[in-house]
């Protein structure tokens, strides 16, 4: 009875990332002393991505995907086997297949390095976003954490956080501001969603 309750109370999360994995690291660090929230797997589409080293360091299972496996029914079943409470896109650059979205309604979230609906859509990620924001002489930028649907960056917004852009900002300095917002707000938003 006690063991059954413990298993039921676990909140498994699956992290998706394509790059260095700084958001993945921030999430792992935030939940390291939380016995209920467990990163059970990291899904990655790049064999050379730095996030795989993070997974290895924390003994978290990795799932390397290509375009075909990502769209397969077997991949959906593989994800379901983890009984995830959330799928968390933390710097993951591929559009999530409709079959995955349908299998996990309102359980997939993404972080975007701009204030959606501005600067979203296909090809708008990382330095591309920051360069566009600066080129357009915006006075502020920020992050948007949102649910994932069948379209790029169009799911319902969960939270936005803002930062000021100064005349001296470059795409690199803006990226640093955005990363600070991401690393602070993303783990806390996950915690909030899992507690409700």
Explained architecture:
The protein has 196 residues and is of the alpha/beta class. It has a single domain, classed as Rossmann fold (3-Layer(aba) Sandwich), CATH 3.40.50.170. 39% of the residues lie in helices and 23% in strands. It has helices at 2-9, 22-30, 51-57, 67-70, 73-80, 98-103, 126-135, 171-194, and strands at 11-17, 37-44, 61-64, 84-89, 108-112, 140-147, 157-164. It has a seven-stranded mixed beta sheet with strand order 3-2-1-4-5-6-7, with helices on one face. Mean pLDDT is 94; it is low at 1-7.
Core attributes:
196 residues, 7 strands, 39% helix, disordered N terminus
Secondary structure layout:
Elements: H1 2-9, E1 11-17, H2 22-30, E2 37-44, H3 51-57, E3 61-64, H4 67-70, H5 73-80, E4 84-89, H6 98-103, E5 108-112, H7 126-135, E6 140-147, E7 157-164, H8 171-194
Parallel strand pairs: 1-2, 1-4, 2-3, 4-5
Antiparallel strand pairs: 5-6, 6-7
Q: Judging from the principal axes of the Cα atoms, what is the shape? A: globular
Q: What percent of residues are in strands?
A: 15-25%
Instruction: Find the structural class using helix and strand composition.
Output: alpha/beta
Supply the CATH superfamily name: Formyl transferase, N-terminal domain
């Amino acid at each position: 009875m006690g063991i059954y309750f413990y298993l039921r109370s676990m909140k498994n999360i699956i992290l998706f990332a394509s790059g260095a994995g700084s958001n993945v690291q921030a999430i792992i660090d935030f939940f390291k002393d939380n016995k209920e929230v467990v990163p059970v797997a990291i899904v990655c589409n790049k064999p050379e991505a730095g996030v795989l080293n993070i997974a290895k360091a924390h003994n978290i299972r990795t799932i390397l995907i290509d375009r075909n496996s990502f769209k397969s029914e077997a991949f959906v079943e593989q994800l379901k086997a983890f009984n995830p409470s959330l799928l968390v896109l933390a710097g993951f650059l591929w559009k999530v297949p409709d079959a995955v979205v349908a299998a996990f309604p309102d359980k997939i979230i993404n972080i975007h390095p701009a204030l959606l609906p501005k600067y979203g859509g296909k090809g708008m990620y990382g330095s591309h976003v920051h360069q566009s924001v600066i080129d357009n002489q915006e006075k502020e930028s920020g992050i948007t954490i949102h649910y994932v649907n069948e379209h790029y960056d169009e799911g319902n917004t969960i939270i936005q956080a803002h930062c000021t852009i100064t005349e001296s900002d470059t795409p690199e300095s803006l990226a640093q501001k955005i990363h600070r917002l991401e690393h602070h707000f993303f783990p806390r938003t996950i915690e909030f969603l899992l507690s409700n």
